[in-house]
Write a structure and sequence with these properties.
Elements (H helix, E strand, L loop, with lengths): L10 E6 L5 H16 L4 E3 L4 E3 L1 E5 L5 E4 L14 E8 L4 E6 L7 H10 L5 E6 L1 H7 L15 H13 L2 H4 L1 E3 L6 E6 L2 H13 L2
Parallel strand pairs: 1-7
Antiparallel strand pairs: 2-3, 4-5, 4-8, 5-6, 6-7, 8-10, 9-10
Helix pairs in contact: 1-6, 2-4
Length: about 200
């Protein structure tokens, strides 16, 4: 496991502010809990960093995403989520506000939202078994591309345009050990796609 796991790689412009929409944070927590209980979101004690994150489009613009280093928390609420208000993939920048800084995967989530207006939620989890089982079988990113980078954003665009990622909604991140990502028209669909893979084991 890479020692830089879970750390923000983009230029983060975070403005401390109030919690995001309480209905959206409650929805995020509702679907985060089964992912947490399945070990798909959590904390690497040996590295001292969290893993896994999820987001949903905000009502007006942007998206609400779990905050960085919140993987160890089972029951989350407003203090554990950030609102991404803007981003620039080419410039490797993310602008967010809220009680906590946005997840290190925010740029990847932003890239997926940008690809299709019908995408309303993104879920990124870690699982050594799911990763190994589906690597190269499900749509898979190139193994030399790291998480949270403009390159990963462009790679996910390639998968959506050229592979079954457009219909399956799930991809394996070859250069991000244990990383699996899914999207959906709702948070239920995005999380459900991951949980369905888990139930096949």
């Amino acid at each position: 496991m890479s020692i830089d796991e879970g750390y923000i790689k983009f230029e983060s412009h975070w403005t401390p502010g109030p919690a995001a929409d309480p209905e959206l944070t409650a929805l995020l927590d509702r679907w985060r809990q089964p992912l947490f209980d399945a070990g798909l979101i959590g904390h690497y004690d040996e590295l001292g960093v969290g893993y896994g994150n999820l987001s949903v489009r905000a009502r007006d613009s942007g998206f609400v995403i779990s905050g960085t280093q919140t993987g160890h928390i089972r029951n989350t609420g407003g203090p554990h989520y950030a609102l991404v208000t803007d981003y620039d993939i080419a410039a490797n920048q993310v602008f967010s506000t809220g009680p906590v800084e946005a997840s290190s995967e925010s740029l990847t989530h932003a890239a997926i939202y940008e690809l299709d207006a019908t995408i309303s939620a993104v879920v990124h989890v870690h699982s050594a078994s799911l990763w190994a089982k589906h690597l190269g079988r499900l749509p898979t990113t190139a193994d030399d591309i790291s998480y949270g980078t403009p390159e990963m954003a462009r790679e996910l665009e390639r998968l959506l345009r050229n592979t079954a990622f457009a219909t399956s909604g799930v991809a394996v991140m070859a250069g991000h050990e244990e990383g699996v990502i899914a999207y959906g028209r709702s948070l239920e669909e995005a999380a459900g796609r991951i949980l369905a893979l888990q139930s096949e084991r």
